[in-house]
Design goal:
The chain is of the alpha/beta class and 269 residues long. It has helices spanning 2-19, 24-31, 35-47, 69-73, 77-89, 103-112, 125-131, 156-162, 188-199, 238-246; strands at residues 51-53, 59-61, 96-99, 118-122, 137-141, 145-147, 152-154, 167-172, 176-178, 182-185, 201-207, 220-222, 229-233, 250-254.
């Protein structure tokens, strides 16, 4: 019995890490135990520092630190490059595009260095560094306060700059993305800015590798417009993509060459 309790608590922590907030009733049904048993599990996990309890019996993992940009750059490198290659092909000369901060959007900036003449506006240090010597690209920075973890600019100055511009396309990164709630990030200032970025752009793309689809690691969210495009790598499972397709989201699966292998015939321009 003690072993069963230990295994269940370990599974609860794993669920919190991968799906975010989880209710007592949901956990009770999942494990086939009473709600009071789940409450005792949560109380013990909270005392151990593994979880934090929230209103209504839901819980949030606290031992899930946000990775820095430096840590993320090397993760899923091939997937990010595939996504970036597809995204770069969507751009035509003369467009004004908006790039989010992040490692995948940084990979896109790398692909744009020898591409068509563009105006690229960005909130990210990585994109600025990649495009600093790109002669065909006019580079603008939104400004604001630099957030060290993400190496991106946030805050009222960045938001004010956005309100005075419009863009042909925006490419957004995420710590997690779901069909229901949109983009998940560690800091509500990030999600506020991403929401504005999407609102000011004609076409919205979310660039995430497959492991981030359906993830809810934090509690700040940026809702997305009714029409947007999820761009991920070819390893993404169809079961994870179905909720997005059901809501009318265009889904792109980029292979190593940057080709869309999803079977979609939707036009990108």
């Amino acid at each position: 019995m003690a072993r069963d309790s230990k295994l269940r608590r370990e599974a609860i922590v794993q669920l919190a890490t991968t799906t975010g907030l989880t209710g007592v009733d949901e956990l009770s049904a999942h494990f086939g135990v009473t709600a009071s048993t789940i409450r005792r599990d949560l109380a013990q996990l909270e005392r151990a520092g593994a979880l934090a309890r929230t209103y209504g019996g839901a819980m949030a993992i606290v031992a899930h630190p946000e990775a820095s940009l430096r840590q993320r750059v090397g993760e899923e490198f091939e997937a990010k490059r595939a996504i970036a290659r597809w995204a770069a092909r969507q751009l035509a000369a003369g467009e004004t595009v908006l790039l989010d901060a992040g490692s995948t959007t940084g990979a896109l900036a790398h692909e744009l260095r020898n591409g068509p003449a563009l105006t690229v506006v960005t909130t990210g240090m990585t994109a600025l560094q990649e495009l600093a010597s790109a002669e065909a690209v006019t580079v603008e920075c939104l400004g604001g306060v630099l957030r060290p973890k993400s190496q991106g600019f946030i805050g009222p100055l960045a938001e004010a700059a956005l309100e005075r511009r419009t863009f042909d396309r925006v490419f957004l990164g995420a710590d997690g993305v779901t069909a229901e709630d949109g983009i998940c990030e560690a800091d509500i200032r990030q999600t506020r800015l991403k929401e504005l970025m999407a609102r000011r752009s004609d076409r919205v793309y979310v660039l995430v590798h497959a492991a981030k689809i359906g993830r809810r690691p934090f509690h700040a969210w940026a809702p997305l417009p009714p029409k947007w495009t999820l761009v991920t790598d070819a390893s993404a499972a169809e079961a994870d993509l179905e909720p997005f397709r059901a809501r009318g989201v265009e889904v792109v699966l980029a292979d190593e060459n940057g080709d869309d292998v999803s079977g979609s015939t939707a036009s990108s321009r």
